[in-house]
Amino acid sequence: MASYSPLFSSPAARWKQLVLSKRITIAAIFTLFSLLVLSEVFLERGISSRILSTLSLSSNSPSLNDSPLSCSNPFDVSSLQHNTPRPTYPRKANATFLTLARNSDLAGVIHSMKQVEGRFNRDRQYPWVFLNDEPFTEEFIRCTSAVTSAKTYYGQMPREQWVQPDFIDEEKATKARKALSRIKGVFYAESVSYRNMCRFYSGFFYKQALLRDFKYYWRVEPDINYRCEIEYDPFLYMEDNNKAYGFTISVPEQKETTPTLWDTSMEFFNKNPQYLHPNNAMRFASKDGGKTWTRCTYWTNFEIGDLDFFRGSEGYNKYFEHLEAAGGFYYERWGDAPMHGIAISLLLDRDRIHHFDDIAYEHTGWEQCPNPSTPAYERGRCSCDYGNSMDVKWKRYSCKADFNAALAIPRINSE
Ligand SMILES: Nc1nc2c(ncn2[C@@H]2O[C@H](COP(=O)(O)OP(=O)(O)OP(=O)(O)O)[C@@H](O)[C@H]2O)c(=O)[nH]1
Ligand SMILES: *[C@@H]1O[C@H](CO)[C@@H](O)[C@H](O)[C@H]1NC(C)=O
Ligand SMILES: [Mg+2]
């Protein structure tokens, strides 16, 4: 098995550790609060009436004011749509939002949907595709479909695209998870379901039947925030500029989760150099032509991508198969961000990768906020603090400089 590097070997790991301790405090406060709320529920109204009120979407529900946070307090779409005449848009892309979630993620999913609907989609009406490894509950379906006036679709992926494959040596995998959990600052070190999720987003999301009729997807995770209006259509931007992959934040992956990912990847690309695009963005991933890895990744909890690229790229699919066979999704904790990062940077023409630097996006405390001296800030009626942005406060962890360096390399004429 791979050897793990020492404690806090990377700045990102140190930062994550800080967040972790903050999270524990927040978790403790939240648990106390939940206990208080729960005891109130049981004492005053009984659990069954609580569940009923959760499911009730009607506005004459007697418990509207003290209702729990998920769907008994649906987004007030009507007020947004009728106060002022809403713009209409003559063009629309062939695109959908994509959310992978557990039923228990409902509250966070609703939060994210409100962000996306309020800042962008209420006038655009792009549909939502929800995926799960279990059947979605009636509650999940009713609540999420109440947040949008666009179409919603719900699907379950085939079991073999989710669970750990049989060829993985479970004893070796268990040992590796235990070893990783002894290193401080590594999230989900022992989680198998997290590994399933990373593998799914690496090799299977784009193969889903529900996505077959779409060209672009926009990934949305629970509990994210969009802090400016999105006043143009990023899907149409992708289409009009022939972009295949768009990101907001780029950060380095931790060493501990991916000790052999780079070498395993180079093994594949050295054997199959025909898949390397002549105008790739290799410089984002490596400063020395492939010898060592920058660890830079596009932070995949936000991504807008061209499904036809993922579905149609032989290189991408063969690369995934190579990683799958090496077993690192389970023997280590390879994420979909480092995997996409390497694949996108090496397989695509770098001109087809786009940094959406005008989109204000936040996930677990890391955020991108446009510079207030740019038109995007004022036009977007932003509510974010530029000082807290990746490129200001966390500049030393941002991979933006590596991306810019990749784009600055003169193109070679491949005609
Ligand atoms: N159906 C299903 N979805 C999952 C599972 N684990 C994670 N997800 C979803 O996969 C996405 C990524 O998972 P997260 O736990 O947010 O991973 P992360 O963004 O690396 O970690 P955080 O920093 O905690 O947000 C989210 O949309 C989750 O809802 C799972 O076991 N089943
Ligand atoms: C949308 O894109 C998919 C994938 O490219 C394609 O199969 C489908 O025909 C497209 N639909 C429309 C209406 O263009
Ligand atoms: Mg997340």
From TrEMBL:
Key words of the record: Membrane, Transferase, Transmembrane, Transmembrane helix
Gene3D superfamilies, A to Z: Spore Coat Polysaccharide Biosynthesis Protein SpsA, Chain A (3.90.550.10)
Protein transport listed as a keyword: no
Gene Ontology biological process terms from the UniProt entry: cell wall mannoprotein biosynthetic process; protein N-linked glycosylation
Record-annotated active site: 303 (nucleophile)
One Pfam family matching this protein: Glyco_transf_15
InterPro entries: Glyco_trans_15, Nucleotide-diphossugar_trans
Residue ranges crossing the lipid bilayer per the database entry: 24-43
Domain of life: Eukaryota
A GO cellular-component term linked to this record: Golgi apparatus
GO-annotated molecular function: alpha-1,2-mannosyltransferase activity
Family note: Belongs to the glycosyltransferase 15 family.
PANTHER family, per the entry: ALPHA-1,2 MANNOSYLTRANSFERASE KTR1
Protein name as it appears in the record: Glycosyltransferase family 15 protein
Origin species: Lentinula aciculospora
